[in-house]
């Protein structure tokens, strides 16, 4: 019971002199671990062979996890705000680790439904709770630089795959002598996959515990040295009031921002999901052979992860200087230009293709990292974590819509391995239209009406609790 009580919010209040710069590493410990979700392609072919299933049947595991991420973040957001970051991060670690353990059981017994239940459902719940758990706390510790703070943590989610991908390959080669991590077509056996899932489940739980026991909430009345809260009033579209999660979803601004996030993610995930075959198809010679080797395509995917991760920090930090609405005008407006350029001229040079795709992916990552600060600007700090959780349903919807749009167009153009740059143009121009919708939605966002603000006494009481 003593351990459980240590997770309560009242036991996580920072003592006098506690450095707020210890909070981002605690948040990063969680986000680096759950960012493994982007590395599932490493062992996808091995799972296909082990279960004797189709690519689609195995791909459903990732889709379930992303849907559960959005649903658990939306449903559990208010609980996360009420219980505090330490308890929420512990619950996230428990679900995330259990998801791997149940998934390992499914692999060991060749029961695909257990993999769906484990990594998909249980792991997805851990994803959703873990993703939002440090956000509200970071914003309260960094009221002067919320974009930088959330960018530091959410950067970890984008970079988690960069660690998990190579680590998973090396672990599979350790557990299976017949697996060669340098060969794209090499697959590992079921025993190696089981051992991999067990190893990741245990290792991630231990790493996430570092975040659990180092996270703190600021004491009542705390503020950064030299920061004047009255300066917030001078910034456009930034409120000093607070709005509850229940009232937030009644506002037009919340749903416009939902559309903004949906459009930005839909466009970015379209490239991310198709990255490796896309660069090979864009540079396919008349004889059908691509000038881009499989190994080079894999390197391109890794480079996109770097752009994705860097964009989460750089663009989110930039939003502290120019504002959240202007930075989304960049994501969406410049994104339209880049998508059009990719469709028209991307096939002319490999370097041009890589540069255009990389900047697009940096906007994709930046959109994720900036949105918590945008919510803080619109709705205050009162229940920003819960509001963020509800907004992440846009991610779940985009995770379905983006691949459907791209794959739908490509299926109509021909078979994989035979496509060229021309086959991608209808899909890319469609993404230009998707970004245009988001651009207009961002322009229409306005401050929340005063009658939806919380009484000052109530919001101060809740924030301090």
Folded structure, characterized:
- The protein is mainly α.
- Helices cover 72% and strands 0% of the residues.
- The protein has 18 helices and no strands.
- Helix 5 (85-108) runs antiparallel to helix 9.
- It starts with a helix and ends with a helix.
Judged by helices, strands and strand pairing, the structural class is: mainly alpha
Number of helices: 18
Report, as a whole number of angstroms, the end-to-end distance: 21 Å
Q: How many extended strands?
A: 0
- Radius of gyration equals 22 Å
Instruction: Note the run of SSEs as H and E.
Output: HHHHHHHHHHHHHHHHHH
Overall outline: globular
Unreliable runs, pLDDT <50, ≥5 residues? none
Features:
mainly alpha, 465 residues
Quick structural summary:
The chain is mostly helical and 465 residues long.
SSE diagram, text form:
Blueprint (H helix, E strand, L loop, with lengths): L1 H4 L17 H12 L9 H8 L3 H29 L1 H24 L3 H21 L2 H7 L4 H30 L14 H25 L30 H4 L3 H31 L11 H29 L1 H22 L4 H30 L4 H8 L1 H21 L7 H23 L12 H9 L1
